[in-house]
Amino acid sequence: MRTHRIGRDVSVLNDQLPVPGIGFLTVNAFVLHAAEPVVVDTGLSLPDRGLMDALGSVMDPADVRWIWLTHPDRDHTGALFDLLAAAPRAKVVTTFLGMGIMSTVRPLPLDRVHLVNPGQTLNVGDRVLHAFRPPLYDSPATVGFHDDRSRTVFSSDCFGAPLPSPELAASDNADAIPADLLRAGQLLWATVDSPWVRLVDEQAYEATFQPLRAAAPEAVLSTHLPPAVGHTADFLDMLHTAPTADPWTGPDQQALEELLAGFEPTAASAT
Fold first, then answer.
1. Which residues does 139 contact at the CB level (< 8 Å), separation at least 6?
2. In this structure, how many other beta carbons lie within 10 angstroms of the beta carbon of residue 111?
3. Over its length of 271 residues, how does the chain's per-residue pLDDT go in tens digits?
4. Rounded to two decimals, what is the model's pTM?
5. Strand partners, 4
């Protein structure tokens, strides 16, 4: 993993994942350097991703007070229990449903849980975090938040985009991505990660943009996109477009067999 800083208040712990047929997907965790430090998500549930080492390079893990789990998918929970062991005062911020979903794999200790619903707040010493449900999501347990002190929104999966190269997925800022490529990737991700968006009632859907409009953030930090500073208006416009985006259909069995055939050694290479 690699780390970099967004302003004074946020460290980015950046990883990525190749997704065959789609591209390279950024997988970020974050540290909000509040008076009571907050780690936002804990990376991929794959071996040897190095999140604890990356975290240790930007702060002492023992000082973490809150672990905001934006939802319990396995690309957000990789080092969760390692971090709980290293940070004895930390509590996991999640919802009742998120806690329940986690219990099907490994139960969270109840005395280490702090439940927050959309519309509620969390005081982290020098600032108050405002919980909200992002307009696009793939889990009913999803809760992001807005930090009005740093004017930063943590949007979970919302605004993510598969990108055509690992270099773009590891960019320090979304400005490195050409605007047309960014918009196309976000619309693709909307139909992959939130396919229900094509079925929504337009007025009800657009009402979910209100927390973002009210926050008017300078920075939008998505798990699956390089940090975006100064892109809020464009991102809101993308949300308007998402219900009309072309649906995505994944590879079928024939495509899988063709892919596997490409991995088989030829007679010439086998000799």
1. 71, 72, 73, 98, 101
2. 6
3. 999 999 999 999 999 999 988 999 999 999 999 999 999 999 999 999 999 999 999 999 999 999 999 999 999 999 999 999 999 999 999 999 999 999 999 999 999 999 999 999 999 999 999 999 999 999 999 999 999 999 999 999 999 999 999 999 999 999 999 999 999 999 999 999 999 999 999 999 999 999 999 999 999 999 999 999 999 999 999 999 999 999 999 888 998 898 888 876 654 445 4
4. 0.93
5. 12
